[in-house]
Task: inverse folding
């Protein structure tokens, strides 16, 4: 185990963070909703995949797609059944945040009752390892990074080449103005929640396949992703979350290697310092 | 009977915590989401002083309250420049920071994850005297809190919450007001932590996580913001309800998840239907 190896592990982690963080950032930047329950969307994707693939024995691809769809629908359902009613009854964004906390408590409780807190790993075989000089790289990590690269490319095209993407960028700049000039906010909102939740679902499926998930993986991963988003800032959504996720991936990997007892401490002290020094993000 | 007295003591502890949290969230409008840290500081201070240095438990309680206040003010000072959302997020981060501190640095009794073996004075040894003592201390805390929010300072506090610029305009400093109430809140939470340790006989870091902070939010939210009665009603009703689940024979490994799910549902229901809680005089603004 050398320090270069730790870097490789950090980049692998960064891939998962990047997929969770970009959806969170998308929702926060456009709708100003602090979607804590995004973490439970992530583990729901993972558990759906675990149940379909490992327990029911469905194929890898089919289970993956169904799990991603389940995550996307859960995200949309949370918005329609919880956030919109809170907002419609005069609640502010803070009330939405507390309701979001409520959603994650419920979903996590469900998984806790089902799994008794045991880690669920969806794969049964060993992972392939490539040896590149002093560093052993898992092919899965390379695949994850490739998936992240493709998805970020598609997201870029979606944001900059489609009409919905234009509307999303409009919401980021000025929500009420966007509505005034005829952006169908409800429809755009549906797109945003489906897409962001599907991305979290993909991360959930990959994590469940790779290291497995337990009921509190969701909030743990989400908080790291939130710190990544704060680090990257919301000015340039894709680049910001990407840089933030890579930084957090490397930070947690090195912290985990040298001071395993202090990883959470490091992440949250970083967060508090960042909020204090540059709440708009390092690159905002 | 013993168990009922234990539940009664537990209710008292959480009433004090709810008062403390309601002072800052309800009356001062500061979104505190990290009070589990101060609860832990109080519990660990009292228990370590008592176990390792043999300090009398009542003196240890006073020191726990003081250390709760000091830690609360020290953690608040850097966060004062934040407002609204970012303030809440930073206090939320405190839970994780302090969990690692408790987990890695706090003393523990050989062979366990936490502290046990308190040397309690006669008034706290048996279940009934312990309940009576806790009840008296809780009543004193309720009196203090009632007096505080009814005093000119309480008025200033609500003004700081609603119109900080008006507070400045009449020559008062809203920031001083926030620091003072946060310190009082930290002291009450620290005291509650010491009583919590005496009630449970055993403390470890897992008692003082984000979950405890969420629990406080649920108690205060259900009871009602900016209301002393609400701070009493919230924990009493919810603890009575979840303990009755145990009585009707719910298997114990399901108790945790059911309780957690219930609290989640309560938070959602409150935010949609009744943001001021049962008897609150204010709601989660914004």
Result:
């Amino acid at each position: 185990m050398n320090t270069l190896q730790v870097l490789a592990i950090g980049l692998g982690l960064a891939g998962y963070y990047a997929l969770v963080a970009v959806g969170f950032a998308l929702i926060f930047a456009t709708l100003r909703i602090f979607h804590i329950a995004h973490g439970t969307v992530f583990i729901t994707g993972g558990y759906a995949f675990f149940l379909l693939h490992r327990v029911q024995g469905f194929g890898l691809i089919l289970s993956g797609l169904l799990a991603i769809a389940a995550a996307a629908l859960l995200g949309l359902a949370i918005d329609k059944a919880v956030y919109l009613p809170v907002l419609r009854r005069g609640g502010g964004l803070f009330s939405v945040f507390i309701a979001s906390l409520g959603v994650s408590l419920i979903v996590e409780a469900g998984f806790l009752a089902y799994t008794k807190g045991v880690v669920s790993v969806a794969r049964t075989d060993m992972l392939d390892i490539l040896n590149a000089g002093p560093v052993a790289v898992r092919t899965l990590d390379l695949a994850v990074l490739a998936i992240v690269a493709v998805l970020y490319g598609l997201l870029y095209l979606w944001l900059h080449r489609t009409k919905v993407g234009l509307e999303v960028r409009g919401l980021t700049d000025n929500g009420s103005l966007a509505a005034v000039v005829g952006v169908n906010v409800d429809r755009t909102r549906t797109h945003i929640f489906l897409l962001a939740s599907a991305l979290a679902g993909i991360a959930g499926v990959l994590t469940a396949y790779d290291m497995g998930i337990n009921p509190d993986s969701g909030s743990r991963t989400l908080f790291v992703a939130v710190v990544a988003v704060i680090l990257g800032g919301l000015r340039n959504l894709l680049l910001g979350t990407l840089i933030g996720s890579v930084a957090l991936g490397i930070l947690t990997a090195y912290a985990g290697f040298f001071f395993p007892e202090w990883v959470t401490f490091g992440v949250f002290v970083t967060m508090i310092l960042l909020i204090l020094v540059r709440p708009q993000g390092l690159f905002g | 009977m013993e168990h009922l007295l234990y539940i009664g003591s537990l209710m008292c502890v959480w009433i004090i915590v709810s008062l403390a949290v309601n002072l800052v969230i309800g009356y001062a409008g500061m979104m505190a989401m990290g009070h589990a840290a101060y609860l832990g500081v109080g519990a660990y201070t009292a228990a370590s002083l008592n176990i390792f240095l043999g300090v009398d438990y009542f003196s240890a309680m006073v020191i726990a309250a003081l250390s709760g206040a000091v830690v609360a003010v020290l953690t608040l000072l850097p966060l004062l420049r934040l407002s609204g959302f970012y303030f809440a997020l930073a206090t939320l981060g405190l839970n994780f920071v302090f969990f690692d501190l408790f987990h890695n640095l706090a003393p523990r009794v050989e062979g366990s994850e936490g502290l046990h073996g308190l040397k309690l004075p006669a008034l706290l040894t048996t279940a009934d005297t312990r309940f009576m003592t806790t009840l008296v201390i809780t009543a004193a805390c309720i009196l203090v809190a009632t007096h505080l929010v009814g005093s000119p300072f309480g008025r200033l506090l609500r003004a700081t919450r609603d119109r900080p610029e008006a507070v400045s305009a009449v020559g008062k400093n809203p920031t001083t007001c926030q620091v003072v109430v946060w310190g009082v809140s930290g002291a009450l939470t620290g005291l509650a932590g010491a009583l919590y340790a005496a009630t449970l006989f055993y403390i470890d870091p897992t008692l003082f996580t984000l979950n405890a902070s969420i629990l406080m939010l649920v108690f205060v939210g259900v009871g009602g913001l900016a209301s002393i009665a609400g701070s009493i009603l919230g924990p009493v009703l919810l603890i009575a309800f979840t303990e009755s689940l145990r009585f009707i024979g719910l298997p114990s490994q399901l108790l945790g998840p059911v309780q957690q799910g219930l609290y989640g549902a309560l938070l959602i229901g409150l935010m949609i239907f009744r943001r001021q809680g049962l008897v609150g005089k204010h709601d989660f603004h914004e």
User: Anything to note?
Assistant: The beta strands of chain B are 115-116, 202-203. Chain B touches chain A through 46 residues (CB under 8 Å). The longest strand of chain B covers residues 115-116.
